[in-house]
């Protein structure tokens, strides 16, 4: 398939049974590949000697169409000058962008269930600033500058996350012989983290639900569902229609997306089902919450700020809704071991030998608890 690629045409691409490519009419060899999951990645094909080669240019929309086309043209210019751009990229330590991409693909993705968050942090904080620099020239001052920028914009704990992720990535680089020293050595966390205990009271929940009612898809339904199901933000954001059994009223979170690596069946209360009934279902898109029809929703901070203003509440994050739901269920008489099962926690009330031999799935207890909690939310 050949067409002049635009942002509009990229957003219109849909996954098929097999991956396929759309070749750009404006740049020779440049194409967008669509995976069976709907992921769009850019690449450029070129001839070097007697071999045709492909150079990966990044995933959309992390890498914009304009940036990817610019990189493709630059690669083709290198070929005209007798340089193999793919060979340059594979040399250790040339570009921060290339090394981070390799780190995510070779280490973070296979070994870390939260690799997408690692990728987001490194791309936003590190690659966006130093993407075209030689990674061997990154110094301690560069790391501190990135951390200071996060602190200055109010993302205090994010500063600590940046340090942790960059430290791990540079240790990987040392193992691979890409760099000789880790520039994060000697840098300490800038902010002491305190375990959060924020729980929204009934009045705040009422104001929040009213604010959501005035909002639009996807957050109109997404935020109340966080409260109704007591699941993690990332798990709900990645919810698929194929994971829902609407007849049995269950949602199965697959093991690869569950924090503890075990599949988790979440019973859906009448309240949760009503919220899902309001969600539009797009053709050829399995995602429940999406604005692109290609990737799950994001921009959580922006949505949270809007809800703070409209609801007149403050000082809480989306993850606090999980804690608020758990506390609310406890107030309704839900037993702690049942709440643990609702949250999909392994450690806790049931642990040690009891955890090994207790294989009861507590499905009825979970359903009764979430139904009771759903009725309470409806009454509020």
UniProtKB/TrEMBL annotation:
Which residue numbers delimit the Tyr recombinase domain? 195-371
Q: Which Pfam families is this protein grouped with?
A: Arm-DNA-bind_3, Phage_int_M, Phage_integrase
Tree of life domain? Bacteria
As one GO molecular function, the record gives:
DNA binding
Q: Does DNA-binding appear among the keywords?
A: yes
A GO biological process of this protein is:
DNA recombination
According to UniProt, the name of this protein is Tyrosine-type recombinase/integrase
UniProt organism field: Alteriqipengyuania halimionae
From the broadest rank down, the organism's phylogenetic lineage runs: Bacteria, Pseudomonadati, Pseudomonadota, Alphaproteobacteria, Sphingomonadales
